[in-house]
Amino acid sequence: MSLFPTRTIRILFAFAVCAILLTAFSACREMPPSPHEPSEIVAEIGGLPVALGELQMFVNEVRPAVKEHFEKTYGEADPNSKWHTQFGDETPAGYALTLALEKLRPYKVLQSWCKKEGVAEDFSYKTFVEQWKAENADRRGKKQAGEVIYGPESYTERVYYDYLQDKYESDLRKKVKPEPTDAQLQKIYDEHPDLFYRFGQVTMQCVVLPQSDFTRAQADALYMGFESALKGGADAEKAAEQAKVSAYFRTQVFTADDMSTPLVQGYPEVEDAVQTLEPGQSRTIDDNGVQWLFFYCSGREGNGRMSMEECKPELAQMFSQEYFDQTLAQKEQAAQVKLYDNAVTMIS
Fold this sequence. Notes:
The protein has helices spanning 6-30, 52-74, 92-117, 125-144, 157-175, 182-191, 216-231, 236-242, 262-265, 268-276, 312-334, 343-346; strands spanning 41-45, 48-51, 197-198, 201-210, 249-255, 282-285, 291-301, 304-305, 337-339. The chain is of the alpha+beta class.
């Protein structure tokens, strides 16, 4: 004879089944939704696909601009908490996508050009993440081994994206080398009359007053006496005698080689005086931190603008740079942006 009546067994069985089903249902409800696949394509720019993870990087970057826009326009201080709420005819998510795609456009256009020129082929987000992780792993290994690491110890995803982009651009500039005509080089030469001057040599008379021995006011007074004597017709040496600074007077000849030395390049005011003073002109320089300097230019030799023929290598480089920049700008302007319907619901 059974310990439980048949009806009781059926009731207990039914409760057990319900309990199992309720437990399973509750478990399903408590499971978080599956995350979107970062490599899923959500847009295209200039025919090149844009992955969710790639676009999300730029969405994260424009969040401050989104907050500022919705705060100023709608008085909403926290648009991130109302990502898909309609404000007027826009949502924070939609506005963020618009800004992010505009920031991403130059990147994808350059990548598309690289692909066309054969500089690089794979611009998928998956490959990018693999490269990024491999780079950081390599840097960690070098650090542990005590090797020298140039740059950061590890890259953030966004910074590494820029790092690769800079490399792509550098490689592309080396590959894209148009051959300019003489007429094109002449045009650049004529458009930059301030360039391509030959520096021969410049003779400068200098008065060098140690700041440890002379105050600014004393130096100014002495310079006024020096300049007054020059205007009175005295040469630089006589002007120094009349201003009672002969002991600090010297003549210095500057050649093209001197212009690249620390003595000149370390003091921009000195370099400018040597480059620009014409014979008969003087100038005082009082802020090199060590000395008060008076400069008087007494002569220039071998100076003048180089001919177009002499400048051809530099002009060709300028042409190449201008061609690259203009072509890239045109490609960016012409690039079509296509946003997939699911993108706005997938970004966070």
